[in-house]
Amino acid sequence: MTDEALRSTASKEIKHHVPEVPDVPKKGVFFKDITPLLEDEITSYAPVDGVSLATQSTRYHRVLSADARGFIFEGTLANRANKGPILARKPDKLPRKTFSASYELEYVPNALVVHANSIPAGCHVLVVDDLLAPGGTAGDMSQLVEGSGGLNGRELLAPYEVASPLTFDE
pTM for this structure? Predict the structure, then answer.
């Protein structure tokens, strides 16, 4: 099976198991619920398979994801690629000196921190998020890597390579 055929199959399986829940966490927001996907013994690895395939030619040293759903994918991706994971946590959750970046989701301001020495100079980092919607979390993680300004969604992540096993058309 070709890489494109594998991506297409993974995309269909993932979408089938990700219902949209209206008005969660607030009115007007349509939440993509990944828990049915993760709870299914057959499809639970489809996102990891899709991202692994989509990033197989990407050069990186470590994998960064955000607290908490991102950790579900990060550990397996880092293990498969023999790379080190970096945990981006909520403020006050890491014990040593940290570097932080803040962002605003469509419904709440937030911040993420990493240990100050987690990303050495010249380190290439694969940023993994469970879902790229407005891009706040991915943008925040990119700030943690680059130390640059805020990003919003795929369009403003344009300086970065963005790979996804699927997209949800709005």
Answer: 0.72
